[in-house]
Amino acid sequence: MTSKAQAGTALWAKMPKANAELFALTYGSLVTELVRDYEDPIEVNAQLDRIGHSIGVRCVDEFLSKADVAGMGLSTQCNTLRDTAEVVAKVGFKMFLGVTAEVGGFSQDQRSFSVYLQDNPLSTFVELPSESAQGGDDLRRLKYSQILCGVIRGALEQVNLKVECSIVRDTLKGDEVNEIRVDLKEVLADGAGDDYKEE
Length: 199
Fold this sequence. Notes:
With 199 residues, this protein is α+β, with helices and mostly antiparallel strands. 49% of the residues lie in helices and 14% in strands. It contains seven helices and four strands; from the N terminus they run H-H-H-H-H-E-E-H-H-E-E. It has helices at residues 3-14, 20-38, 41-69, 74-77, 81-97, 136-139, 146-158, and strands at 102-104, 112-117, 161-169, 178-187. Helix 2 runs antiparallel to helix 3 (41-69) and helix 3 (41-69) packs across helix 7. The longest helix is centred in the first third of the chain and has 29 residues, at 41-69. The chain starts with a helix and ends in a 12-residue tail after the last strand. Residues 195-199 have low confidence and may be disordered.
């Protein structure tokens, strides 16, 4: 087990746990309610992404404080996007969802990568309607786990990395693995200090 995977397991052990089935069913209820409210799967995807972004922004504080207490020294571990991707996949996913994700598919310029999830705790008990079912074709455009993209985007934005995330493969749609593609768009300047400088 790599040091990042070990750190993720140690942090997971310190986190309060929720029943996995209750978690999956509660998330399913949220998605169902959004589908009823918005009817358009593209808008549901956007809402899930927004909710995930808000969660990601808040998760960073807890992640950094717990990692600091665990002595991970993230400031020395996240010098490159590759390092950051490893921490997100092996520590972040383990800490908050109890699953270890894999990282790969780095672009030549090292500005994009994929996160691979064999087990997606959000999709437990979920079956999307087939295209032949009434409304099934429409719901095939639903990206059921889009909230994860929002979480990654929000979390990385808090550490000054503006990214775009998208689900490119989904086991709910017959793929063998869940794949989230992350593209770095910009490294943001840290401007928070400028607001607090004395004149």
